[in-house]
Design brief:
four-stranded parallel sheet, 28% helix, 455 residues, elongated, FAD/NAD(P)-binding domain, alpha/beta, five-stranded parallel sheet
């Protein structure tokens, strides 16, 4: 059973992402004992995952061990484990290892994962980008495509066209497309002898009428112009109906490609289904203005897992609101603890309010779009937006070491056109590429690229 009012309250936090870390930091100075549980031992700065995926940064520069982040707070313990069931009536959480955690307050902030809209078999052919493991797999596939083309050209004199398909035109899809174009045109231009990386094609397939649907129309147009300058092709109203090794289908049209990446949809962590509370169609937990599911004022749902509405619109599942939700949950729990200790409970009726500071997406070197809402309002694009994006992302990186490392690596990459993390690890196979014969399956010889000569 949960502890009584005369002993320190116990808070269990599930998830070490933006919401979980901010909740733990907010609770650290309160008279409570905190257990943070995550199946990984590190916190990942997800907005920069694509830079790991495209070899600009290494994983250690955007991730930091959770224990090191929280080590100065003696009332916080960290467990590398995973929740598998809940008993909300008895206030208990069972972990994968069999351990049973009792709590007075529970914060669930386990985020989201990829949604393949019922076609989970596509996951192996078109990886998404949510974790460090995803980023290193994307890096492997993108870099391996150039290496296989170089090897085939050296052996046979031709190689299949290098084409990268990104399914989804949201911020992640746009960032991936721009970064692939950048590394092909700029950073690998002098690295190969038999192929020209700049001939690689990058195409975004977006099922809705516009890319960056959450952005104002003028910034959508700016993004399209900047992507076009990078040589990225955009197809809207393009509904992918099948993904296979070496090609995708849009309706009855087959589009051959070397690498397919997924940026089309997300769904809430499956942990939400285990709570036995109302969910929306994406599996997000429907919560009230205090981030509580119905009938459970001691349970707080934060981050991507929460479906909370403000002014008739759902708060977006991105880093900024997740950080605010975690901080709010900690503050609200502090008020409840103070009330139980004899305070008047001032502020207990204060609901969560999302302070929207704006959105931004980087498109490539010196290219970005920013819809700024605080401390001033404005629509920025190009180099000014890229500088703002750079400063903000470095500022929010956890740990001085990470900020310094990222700034140093970005400066080096920007000035020298050299990537410092262009490593291929793991398998040397690509879906659709026949390693035995050195060709891309189903690609007619006449469609393969014959280089004009050694570069």
């Amino acid at each position: 059973m949960a502890a009584g009012n005369n002993v320190r309250k116990r808070v269990v936090i599930l998830g070490g992402g933006f919401a979980g870390i901010n909740a733990a930091m907010g609770l650290a100075k309160l008279p409570v004992d905190i257990t943070l549980v995550d199946r990984k031992n590190h916190h990942t700065f997800q907005p920069l995952l694509y830079q790991v995926a495209l070899a600009v940064l290494s994983p250690a520069e955007i991730a930091q061990p959770i224990r090191s982040i929280l080590r100065d707070h003696q009332n916080i313990e960290v467990l590398m484990d995973e929740a598998v069931s809940f008993d909300l009536a008895q206030k208990r959480v069972r972990l994968k290892t069999g351990a049973l955690l009792e709590y007075d307050f529970l914060i669930v902030a386990t985020g989201s994962t990829h949604s393949y809209f019922g076609r989970d078999d596509w996951a192996k052919l078109a990886p998404g980008l949510k974790t460090v493991e995803d980023a290193t797999e994307i890096r492997r596939r993108v870099l391996l495509a150039f290496e296989l083309a170089e090897r085939q050209t050296q052996e046979a004199g031709v190689h299949p066209p290098l084409k990268f398909i990104i399914i989804g035109g949201g911020p992640t899809g746009v960032e991936l497309a721009g970064a692939i174009s950048d590394i092909a045109r700029l950073y690998m231009a002098r690295d190969f002898r038999h192929i020209d990386p700049a001939t690689a094609q990058v195409e975004i397939l977006e099922g809705s009428p516009a890319i960056l649907a959450a952005y104002p129309p003028d910034l959508q147009k700016k993004a399209i112009d900047q992507l076009a300058h990078l040589g990225v092709t955009i197809r809207t109203n393009a509904h992918v109906t099948d993904v296979q090794p070496g090609y995708v289908m849009v309706g009855n049209e087959r589009i051959d490609c070397t690498v397919t990446l997924w940026a089309a949809g997300v769904q809430a962590s499956p942990l939400g289904k285990l709570l036995g509370v109302p969910l929306d169609r994406r599996g997000c937990v429907i919560v009230d203005q205090f981030l509580n599911p119905p009938g459970h004022p001691d349970v707080f749902i934060c981050g991507d897992l929460a479906h909370v509405e403000e002014n008739g619109h759902q708060v977006p599942g991105v880093a900024q609101p997740a950080m605010q939700m975690g901080a709010y949950a900690a503050k609200h729990i502090g008020r409840m603890v103070a009330r139980d200790l004899g305070s008047d409970g001032t502020g207990l009726n204060e609901p969560f309010h999302y302070f929207d500071k704006g959105d931004m997406a980087t498109i490539g070197r010196k290219a970005a779009v920013a819809n700024i809402k605080w401390p001033f309002k404005g629509h920025w694009s190009g180099f000014p937006a890229w500088i703002v994006w750079l400063i903000i992302h470095i500022f929010f990186l956890i740990g001085f070491r990470n900020r310094l490392a990222v700034f140093r690596q970005w400066a080096w990459t920007y000035l020298t056109f050299q990537d410092g993390a262009r490593l291929i690890t793991g398998s040397q196979d690509l879906p659709g590429w026949d390693s035995e014969y050195g060709i891309q399956r189903d690609t007619p010889v006449e469609q393969q690229v014959t280089p004009t000569g050694t570069r």
